[in-house]
Design brief:
alpha/beta, Rossmann fold, eight-stranded mixed beta sheet, globular
């Protein structure tokens, strides 16, 4: 990354639009400088979230269906570049881009052609109301804050026409609940791959869980913490460089890869107390907080205190206490 080319005033302008809620009212890309500076900073943080999601999909044994790759709301193109870096280009017949900004589509198209020579790249995949079934994988990234409810419903219905859908959003309460609504809208048409370990109704929706939301945390690369330019960016953007909260949803027309019985998704971060830790776990029975004690599971407890919590686990528990746990 060449930090000398970053347009810091452009980043300040973009950040102001993201924070005051005006980003969804129109095209905020005014120049190539806007896109290049965003792609080197804000987009990298989004890319690290995509790395987290895609690494989990590989761990679960999921692989993309052969066909086209569609990036809806592509922006600078960080989502499809992360996808192609993880899974390669050999199974992708073509990359199709869509964004309300023609400038953004041109930028993303050029970057993709430079990075993946020989890959067929084209702008235009249709607006979300286009309903004809299409074979391939749809990527959607950080668009919910810029869409109205009717537009989100139309986008969800468009997603249902694809073989696979990978949707990544900020890990906020509002974004999580919106993705849960999309999940419930589509789970009779598509199989739920992640973050869930089951196909049942989302347990967050059960009475008593109103304070919870389905969010997770990715990790930035270590060099971020030793680079003064990233420190400058973190101060300008007002973000904690250590924290990358996200919500995500992966759906597929194909069956979900099998998971062991009692597979659990840990939501958020454990709450650590002196004698025990509390973890919010999601499985087919619902969402509930379970207790892992230092006395019964000393090594697991030490790992949690160090901040090491595998989000995919297999639990054996009695009532509210975890008797035995292991990584999925």
């Amino acid at each position: 990354m060449n930090w000398k080319t970053i347009d810091w005033k452009s980043l300040e302008h973009l950040r102001a639009g993201f924070l005051d809620g005006t980003a969804g009212k129109g095209d905020y890309w005014k120049s190539e400088s806007d896109l290049a500076s965003y792609d080197a900073t804000f987009a990298q943080r989004i890319g690290w979230k995509w790395d987290y999601v895609l690494a989990e999909l590989q761990r679960r044994g999921w692989s993309p269906a052969p066909g086209a790759l569609f990036d809806w709301g592509c922006g600078s193109g960080i989502a499809h570049r992360a996808f192609l870096d993880h899974f390669g280009v050999s199974g992708v017949s073509e990359l199709r881009l869509w964004d309300r900004s023609a400038l953004a589509m041109r930028f993303a198209e050029r970057r993709a052609k430079e990075k993946y020579p020989g890959l067929k790249v084209a702008a235009g995949i249709g607006a979300p109301e286009a309903g004809a079934p299409m074979s391939g994988t749809l990527l959607i990234s950080h668009v919910l804050t810029e869409l109205q409810p009717a537009e989100i419903e139309a986008l969800a219905d468009f997603a249902a026409t694809l073989t696979s859908v990978i949707w990544v959003e900020p890990g906020t309460y509002e974004a999580s609940l919106t993705l849960i609504a999309v999940r419930e809208r589509l789970r009779e048409k598509l199989n739920v791959i992640a973050p869930c370990t089951h196909q049942a109704r989302c347990g967050i929706l059960a009475p008593g869980n109103e304070s919870h939301w389905c969010h997770h945390f990715a990790s930035p690369p270590p060099e971020v913490f030793t680079d003064g330019n990233w420190a400058k960016f973190g101060e300008l953007a007002g973000v904690d460089l250590r924290s990358l909260p996200l919500s995500f949803l992966v759906l597929d027309r194909r069956p979900a890869p099998p998971v062991p019985a009692n597979a659990v998704r840990v939501i958020g971060r454990p709450r650590i107390f002196k004698p025990h830790a509390l973890m919010l776990g999601c499985d087919e029975s619902g969402v509930a907080e379970k207790r892992l004690t230092k006395r019964r599971s000393p090594e697991d407890f030490r790992q949690l205190k160090r901040g090491d919590c595998d989000p995919l686990q297999v639990w054996r528990y009695e009532k509210d206490e975890i008797i035995e746990s292991r990584s999925l």
